[in-house]
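Re: the multi-chain job from yesterday

Posting the exact lines I submitted so nobody has to dig through the queue logs.
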Amino acid sequence: MGCLPIVNQEFLRIKPFSQTKVIRFLNDKNVVETQEITNKSHPEPIRLGREKSRTPSDKAFSGTIVIAALSSLAILVAILIYLASSSWPVLQKEGLDFITGSTWVNSSANPEEQTFQIWPMLYGTFLNSMLALVIAVPVSILLAIFIVFIAPDRLSRTLTVLVDVLAAIPSGIIGLWGFLVFTPVAEGWSKLLNQYFFLIPFFRNDQDQFARSPFIAGWVLAIMITPIITVVAREVLSQTPQELLDAARGLGGSLWGAVKFVALPHARGGIVGGVMLGLGRALGETIAIYFVLNLIFEKVNYFQILNPQGGAIASMIVAKFGEATPDEIRALLGAGLILFLMTLVVNLIANWIVARSVREKIA
Amino acid sequence: MTSQVLDTSTMKPQYPWKKSRPTVVIANSLIVVIPMSVYAFFFFFTDLPGALIFIAIFLPIQIAMAVIMTIVALGKRRVGDAVLSVLSVTAFSLVLALLGSVLLSVAARGLPAMRFSFLTQNNIYISPTTELTYGGVGHALLGTLTVVAIGTVIAVPLGIASAIYITDMKGRLAGFVRFIVQAMSGVPSIVAGLFILAAFILTDFVGFSALTGGLAYAILMLPTVARTSEEVLKLVPKELRDAATALGSSRARVIMRIVLPTAKAGIITAVILGVARVVGETAPLLLTTSNTNGTNLNPFKDPVSTIPVYIFQFLGSGYESSIQRAWGAAFVLMLVVGILFGLARVLSPKGKAR
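And the result, structure tokens for all chains:
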């Protein structure tokens, strides 16, 4: 203790060079270029990732990567351009009626009478998807809650795998199963609904036929979108902060209370986004619907979901493509354009919602 | 005295905090047993259909039992838990039943069609009523292989490049590219088919062929490959890149020699997942490859048959043996998808990427 002040005093006698002197010295010697020497103990981190490439080969590499990365954009734009341009004659001729009309007349002998309008299909797509959501959303959310909060660890891991397996089944196989195995079963359900709830207009059936109805199509779609919604819901539910759950439990709340007041509000954005992703998938589903739904072009089935009449744009394209005339193919391309725009908008909104809610979770 | 202290082998561990609650066990068994027996009673002794009994009798009784038992065993505040548990177990059973039904019916109806000739022979001289001993999916398997290979060759470099751009180069457009890739993953498969139809086939650039099918598949594969490889590339430690850069490697060298080899297993997983995602797609192939009964090994000319389209073709014709063929092909397709997903799981780095 005694000698320390003396040492310090010794040090204080030697004055350090001022900064300007250092710079002048370095400049005189041409050692480095003039640069500001600051007192910062931590200099700015060098961002290796953003460093400009220098050698020609490096530039070529970066350029290749950038071009390849932008290929997705190019493909999306090309889809838009090609579908729009090749269906333009039909779209121009029909105008807005292409979407709102419900006539489909194809006569190659008399081109003047040809009319291609897709409203029944468009509405049918909407109806099927809504039915699918009505079935899939509660099931998926309950399943996600079960996986995250209720099931024991092992069971929930197994369930996660099973949900992935369900997501992996090709739509053609779901269609095959839906047509040959599920339709007879669902016909029975339809008859029951019709028998007990015929007073409700939804469940009326004015034809004595219950197969190939929007109800069955909705179920088949629900099976295909349940894994999508479940995966997203599980992901966001499992990100609920543990402290909040512990706090809810510590305050004497039950599991239901924790789920209702903590987890679900926390995960709401993500779940909405997942539902939208499922909706996007449901709108574009083709083959499965083709087998389980009776496509009717001349009449719109607005709400009688047990009637064997319905529509779906994607399935219509497959159904009509086989013996389509060139003009009809243009109309189908137009229908594809409408479908593309619909799913694009739905998916962009969905991704935006999911990304925003995940970002909020991290922040 | 000392021996007593040291002899721990006979001492049983005690968990004083772990209460055994016989009431909970009884309650749980009653919640399951009583509704089940009521269901069985109605099912066997009345004509009511099973679905109706389940919705109108089984579920309400089960919820009621759960509520009553919860009040008895745990108190009023846990009633919500009971209802939530019953409903979520119902949802879980429903999904499991549907999944099981799909898998079992594919296995049960597809297996009888399985024989070696079914996998190797093609469809020439086969009418919808021909017996199953003749003909098979050989031509369709080869076709699927060709189409998937073309799709992979196109989509994988583009997908990996997008992932590199997003994770490694962190260019100004990284966020935008990710956004576009996500938007692209929502493109319906039929739209991809229509696009290839409009851009290549209707313009007489190429006819219906494996090439056009592969192009359509590439559009569908690209987002899957890009997103999965992005996840994988994020797992490569930053220290490796920094070390390579500090040793004077150019960016190209860092990526080609350090990042990609490190992430090799994950990138293979990404490719497999991309293939598994598209291999069962029917709709784009109906519009781009058309269909044929013979084997076509030329990928650039003439229609080619694929397994999904084969299923579509035989399901459409409606005869007994052709429907069996459809189930058989579905079994083969399911097997292919299963093997691909199994491979992806085995190869993926610590189950991080699925």
